[in-house]
Design brief:
Blueprint: H1 2-21, E1 23-24, E2 27-31, E3 36-46, H2 57-62, H3 71-76, E4 80-101, E5 105-108, E6 112-114, E7 117-138, E8 142-161, E9 164-186, E10 189-200, E11 204-216, E12 221-234, E13 242-256
Parallel strand pairs: 1-5, 2-13, 3-13
Antiparallel strand pairs: 3-4, 4-7, 5-6, 7-8, 8-9, 9-10, 10-11, 11-12, 12-13
């Protein structure tokens, strides 16, 4: 009788033994050509958007300077000036990929998939930030600014394979820092490049790099388009670590006050 009772116990213990004998494998999503819709709103405390050169699209269409723009204010836009502004931004992106898990390895996200197996991976991200920008502007043509503030990130991770579907959503608040360079050859548009790094606790980092062009429809309204590189890394204590690398076009609207 003891021998017979041991049979179902061994049958239950075998998968656990196999799982314990496998090493945990990290997961990576590397996805190209994913569109990132985004938006920005900013308020420039100094010297102020009303001090910048006229020549937005509305100015060109109407043939007149922007409302409230005086010759004196136009003159004040020349020279080298410090800049102080606060900006809020929001963006969203998703990516997908797959991993081949070899024999003797496993992946884990609230559930375990043992190799050999093909695992489908998906990620959805939405993020926002509130940051201060400060730097120097040269003759209303070249601007160099540092960025520092807070970022909120919500990322949902999903894996599916071998009849197993698992997901996890992480919401983190982190410290954001970076820099931005802007070139305004004429008042109609800006060329920009920006890089930020977000650190949330000790196990999550987010890198965000973007280059693009911003078309100034009015003094306070612009639309922009460009290309974005986004990289997300998170470490889990008892599960697979994740790395997301998603690249592609981005576009949105910008409000400036």
């Amino acid at each position: 009788m003891p021998a017979r009772r041991s049979i179902p116990i061994l049958a239950l213990m075998t998968p656990f033994g196999v799982a314990l004998g496998c090493t945990t494998m990290d997961l990576e999503i590397d996805d190209n050509d994913q569109f990132t819709p985004s938006g920005r709103i900013s308020y420039e405390f100094y010297p102020g958007v009303d001090q910048r050169r006229s020549g937005a699209l509305l100015d060109l269409v109407t043939g007149s300077p922007a409302a409230g723009q005086s010759d004196a204010a136009t003159a004040q836009s020349a020279g080298i000036k410090a800049t102080i502004a606060i900006e809020g931004a929001i963006a969203a992106v998703q990516g997908r990929d797959h991993e081949q898990v070899p024999e003797g390895r496993r992946v884990e996200l609230d559930d375990v998939i043992l190799g050999p197996a093909r695992v489908e991976l998906n990620a959805e991200n939405i993020r926002g930030s509130l940051a201060a920008r400060g730097g120097v502007r040269f003759y209303d043509v070249l601007g160099l600014e540092a960025i520092t503030g807070l970022a909120v990130d919500s990322t949902e991770l999903r894996m599916r394979g071998e009849g197993v579907t698992a997901s996890d959503t992480e919401v983190r608040v982190g410290f954001l820092m970076g820099g931005r360079a802007t070139v305004r050859p004429i008042a109609l548009f800006d060329l920009y490049a920006q890089y930020t790094l977000t650190l949330a606790e000790s196990w999550m980092t987010i890198e965000d790099a973007e280059v693009g062009v911003e078309l100034n429809l009015m003094r306070n309204v612009a639309v922009f388009g460009g290309y974005q590189w986004w990289r997300y890394q998170e470490s889990f204590s008892n599960e697979s670590d994740w790395e997301l690398k998603i690249r592609g076009p981005t576009a949105g609207a910008s409000l400036k006050f």
